[in-house]
Design a protein that fits this description.
By secondary structure, the chain is mostly beta strands. Among the domains are: 2-98, no CATH class; 174-236, no CATH class. Helices cover 6% and strands 19% of the residues. The protein is built from three helices and eleven strands, in the order H-E-E-E-E-H-E-E-E-E-H-E-E-E. The strands form five sheets. The chain has a three-stranded antiparallel beta sheet with strand order 9-10-11. Strands 1-2 form a two-stranded antiparallel sheet. The protein is globular and about 50 Å long. The two termini are 21 Å apart.
Length: 252
């Protein structure tokens, strides 16, 4: 019975959502009508019934490749989701995804679009008595720009760079939100209520500056338990084991 539950847990619940498969940022599971965001490929979480989202072989051509970690896995170049970096599990052939953060940073050359993107890529350099990287002085950087726009990572505190995106089901100035008093559907929250330090959505998805964890290399998103100061890893969601005191990590 548990094997059957595991299988159907990855099924598409709402057939009328299949038209989203036509979007360039969506991936259609093999032998299935289910579609998932390409940002969920190779994150060690099975989303497709046949697990093909975790054996995808073109990960370094994905739209979020600049947020992924490139290394060799079984002698094949792979670009891993950032949440797998320093998670105490070696994915790369030489274990470089678990090496010390400072060993992964570079000394001089990075892509322009990675400047002030929330992820540190440069080693600190001492300038005028201060250590500077590609993520310092970012208060003067426009957070909603052509590089941060619609990449599913909130660079702006209120997520202004992630509204009115092709994959969104909400209106121009709204974010998707699961309200704690109705976990049966995904609703929409006005952008003026996002990033206001008041939690409106389950998991505090509207207050991502509260739940983001910086491992020194990448910002990782965590799920904030309802009416609690605790937060859990996104890898723990819907694993049929309650990590939050009120079980809200398992009710949507």
């Amino acid at each position: 019975m548990e094997n059957i539950n595991n299988l159907f847990r990855t099924c598409l619940i709402e057939p009328n959502e299949t038209h989203y498969c036509n979007h360039s940022n969506m991936y259609q599971c093999k032998n299935s009508t289910k579609c998932i965001s390409k940002y969920r490929l190779l994150d060690r979480i099975q989303d497709c019934p046949l697990n093909d989202d975790e054996t995808y072989n073109a990960s370094c051509s994905l739209p979020d490749v600049h947020r992924r970690f490139s290394c060799s896995i079984r002698s094949y170049r792979t670009c891993l989701a950032s949440l797998l970096i320093e998670d105490r599990t070696k994915d790369c052939d030489n274990g470089e995804d678990e090496r010390r953060i400072d060993e992964l940073l570079v000394e001089n050359h990075i892509y322009f679009q990675t400047i002030c993107d929330g992820n540190r890529d440069l080693l600190p350099v001492l300038i005028d008595g201060r250590y500077e990287t590609d993520e310092t002085e970012c208060q003067f950087w426009l957070c909603n720009n052509m590089y941060s726009r619609c990449d599913r990572f909130w660079l702006c505190k209120n997520g202004a760079d992630e509204v009115n995106c092709p994959f969104s089901n909400c209106s121009e100035f709204e974010h998707s939100c699961v309200f704690p008093n109705d976990t049966s559907k995904v609703s929409c929250l006005p952008i003026n209520q996002a990033g206001d330090s008041v939690i409106h959505c389950l998991g505090a998805t509207d207050e991502r500056h509260i739940t983001q964890y910086n491992n020194g290399y990448r910002f990782l998103q965590r799920f904030k338990c309802w009416n609690d100061s605790e937060s859990v890893s996104s890898l723990s969601l819907c694993n049929r084991k309650s990590e939050c005191r009120f079980g809200d990590d398992e009710i949507f």
